[in-house]
Specification:
By secondary structure, this protein is α/β, with parallel strands linked by helices. The protein contains four helices and five strands; from the N terminus they run E-E-H-E-H-E-H-E-H.
């Protein structure tokens, strides 16, 4: 499965909707998209991982690097990781938990909550 990244704007937030497998081959695209948003002056980024069906250590590394980048420039990073079933981002939630890095991220159940456009 290939990786697809689509961007949308929700108020001050840039939302990157990621679909597919976040692995060694595809993670550089996510890194590029995050860097492009920061280079364009956007400092509030949501990574919507709802449609990520697989994530390996390279994918986790990109998430950690994105957090570090946004923290260094006074920005904010939020992740969307629903926990309903394996096909909707909960795989990434389990991987982050197993590696002990889940606590590094602000995690929300959907884009509306992550961007502050609805109830938390």
């Amino acid at each position: 499965m290939t990786l697809m990244v689509n961007e949308s704007r929700h108020g001050p937030w840039t939302v990157l909707h990621i679909r597919g497998e976040l692995d060694l081959l595809s993670s550089p695209e996510v890194r590029r998209q995050v860097h492009a948003a920061v280079a364009a002056g956007r400092r509030d980024v949501v990574l919507d991982l709802t449609d990520v069906v697989f994530c390996d250590s390279s994918g986790v590394g990109v998430l950690i690097a994105a957090r570090r980048l946004l923290n260094s420039c006074g920005g904010r990073l939020r992740l969307v990781l629903p926990a309903r079933r394996p096909a909707d981002g909960s795989h990434v939630r389990r991987v982050l938990g197993a590696l002990g890095v889940r606590r590094l991220f602000e995690v929300y159940g959907d884009v509306t909550a992550a961007t502050g456009e609805g109830p938390p």
